[in-house]
Description:
By secondary structure, this protein is α+β, with helices and mostly antiparallel strands. The protein has 2 domains: 50-155, no CATH class; 164-234, no CATH class. The protein is 26% helix and 31% strand. The protein has helices spanning 4-39, 50-59, 61-64, 164-174; strands at 75-79, 84-91, 102-109, 114-120, 126-133, 136-144, 150-155, 185-190, 201-206, 216-221, 227-230. The strands form 2 sheets. A 7-stranded antiparallel sheet has the order 1-2-3-4-5-6-7, with helices on one face. It comes from Chryseobacterium indoltheticum. This is Lipoprotein.
Amino acid sequence: MKTIAPFISLIISSFLLTSCIAKTVEKPESKNAKIIAEEKPALDSSRFDIKKFEANAYKQKLFKENFKKSGFDAQYEEEIADDRTVRQWTVFPEQEKEDTQEYAEEISKKWSPFVIRKKYDYKGQLRRWSTTFRQESINKSYEYDESGKIIKITNYEEKFKHSFADIREFLLKTKGIDIYDTRQAIARRVNHRYEDPTQVYYDIYVLDKKDEKNDYRIVIFDDTLQITEYRNENQSK
């Protein structure tokens, strides 16, 4: 037993030493991972990363000669995860004043009609946030002051009885068509031609994957959800 005891003590000591070494190695890795995650700017952040934008825009050959010149519209586009694309560019409301330079950002997704649009001031602070459905403003837009406080909210849905979300649900139930997928249908809301709200309608162009000759239109009136199909023999409304 006396000869075995030192051997057991040696094994225990080696195990403890190995454990201490492992812990010492793990701590820096965990800390570094946390730092990297914190430094990575969030996609939907309320601040615009001006330095990153300038560095990325300058890499594009077309902009190198004119970059940072007054009034020059620098642009940058990047494809990120989940088939999303971020497009950024500069805006000059008053070209003769440097502090009026603004930044714009659009976030879109492949096969989706939605686009998130943001506008930032020359400091990179968020000043406006909105959503569009194929170029049309929908839901609500928000405008902010320099401190980040909301100073204006615009509701684009208050004059309509049904939203795009309502029309989508209605079409999914009745036709199995998803207007949130532009491979299936292209939808728009027609309201600029009529002062009468009962004449507002949703115009949906339904796509046939196999043969475009079989594409057709669906018109749904906002007021009543009355639905009419227009096939090849009667394409005009």
